[in-house]
Amino acid sequence: MRVVVSGATGFMGGRLCAALADAGHDVRAFALRGVDASGLPPSVVVVYGDVTDEESLAAAFRGRDAVFHTAAAVEAWLPDASVFHTVR
């Protein structure tokens, strides 16, 4: 299966990418530009974008059979709580 994982450089996303790759899936990791993706398996293709940017999401999802959304806003407190809803 051809999948994309948002939040691929996070704790859950990185482990999910590895498990999917180990199971033989074609994995595309969706990550924020500038984030260290070196911990992902070599077979995982990293594409950069932002879950709040519709165009980068559409480009990342193109040609995929499934999406695993593990991206999250992890700050304990934000002045604008709508960020949590936007990311989810």
Task: Provide a compact summary of the structure.
It contains three helices and four strands. It has helices at residues 11-22, 54-61, 82-87, and strands spanning 2-6, 26-31, 45-48, 66-69.
CATH class: Alpha Beta
User: What is the radius of gyration?
Assistant: 13 Å
Silhouette: globular
What do the pLDDT scores average to?
88
Cross-sheet strand order for the largest sheet: 3-2-1-4
Low-confidence stretches: none
The major β-sheet equals:
4 strands, parallel
Q: In CATH, what is the homologous superfamily? A: NAD(P)-binding Rossmann-like Domain
Q: Could you say how many structural domains there are in total? A: 1
CATH architecture: 3-Layer(aba) Sandwich
Query: What is the terminal separation in angstroms?
Result: 24 Å
For this structure, the quaternary state is single chain
What is the beta-strand fraction? 15-25%
CATH third-level topology: Rossmann fold
Please work out how many helical segments DSSP would assign: 3
- Give the total of beta strands: 4
Structural class: alpha/beta
H and E string? EHEEHEH
Helix content: 25-40%
GO molecular function, one term: aldehyde dehydrogenase (NAD+) activity
Pfam families: NAD_binding_10
Protein name: NAD(P)-binding domain-containing protein
GO cellular component, one term: cytoplasm
Structural account:
With 88 residues, this protein is α/β, with parallel strands linked by helices. The chain has one domain: 3-Layer(aba) Sandwich (Rossmann fold), CATH 3.40.50.720. Helices cover 30% and strands 22% of the residues. It is built from 3 helices and 4 strands. The protein has helices spanning 11-22, 54-61, 82-87, and strands at 2-6, 26-31, 45-48, 66-69. Strands 3-2-1-4 form a 4-stranded parallel β-sheet, sandwiched between helices. Strand 1 (2-6), helix 1 (11-22) and strand 2 form a beta-alpha-beta unit. The longest helix is centred in the first third of the chain and has 12 residues, at 11-22. It is globular and about 40 Å long. The chain starts with a strand and ends with a helix. The mean pLDDT is 88.
